[in-house]
TrEMBL record:
Bilayer disposition of the protein: Multi-pass membrane protein
Organism field: Candidatus Amphirhobacter heronislandensis
Domain of life: Bacteria
Recorded GO CC terms: plasma membrane
KW Cell membrane (keyword) present: yes
UniProt name for this protein: ABC transporter permease
Membrane-spanning segments: 33-53, 60-83, 89-110
The keyword Cytoplasm appears for this protein: no
Gene Ontology molecular-function annotations: transmembrane transporter activity
Principal place of residence: membrane
Record's subcellular location: Cell inner membrane
């Protein structure tokens, strides 16, 4: 087994998790415990894939994924900061909502693939 392909695979798989951890770190430094990051990530991923699949545009997929993540972050901000709800149950509820919504919406996308870019 060669080391270079393994390292490339690990770095490719770890990048989204590292970006999510970096975003959570920013929240933590601001005094907010955002446990809904996983829900935001998975809804953004399903929105990005579905949009890119239906439009054929990776750029529109990226925009849709970012928009979906921002929408869920806005819901969390409204609950935790605007309505002063407890951050732990609000974040956990957002994670459960995101996982359920992505499973519901993404069920029709299972088994479909995109053409590689480039």
């Amino acid at each position: 087994m060669e080391f270079a392909p393994l390292l490339a695979t690990v770095l490719t798989a770890a990048t989204p998790l590292l970006l999510a951890a970096l975003g959570e770190l920013v929240c933590e430094r601001g005094g907010v415990l955002n446990l809904g990051v996983e829900g935001m990530m998975i809804v953004g991923a399903v929105a990005a894939f579905g949009t890119a699949l239906h439009t054929g545009s990776p750029l529109l997929g990226f925009v849709a994924g970012a928009g979906a993540g921002v929408a869920l972050a806005g819901i969390f901000a409204l609950l935790a900061l605007g309505l002063r709800a407890s951050q732990v149950p609000a974040g956990l509820a957002l994670t459960l909502f995101g996982v359920g919504l992505s499973a519901f919406v993404g069920a029709s996308l299972v088994g479909k693939s995109l053409d590689p870019v480039g």
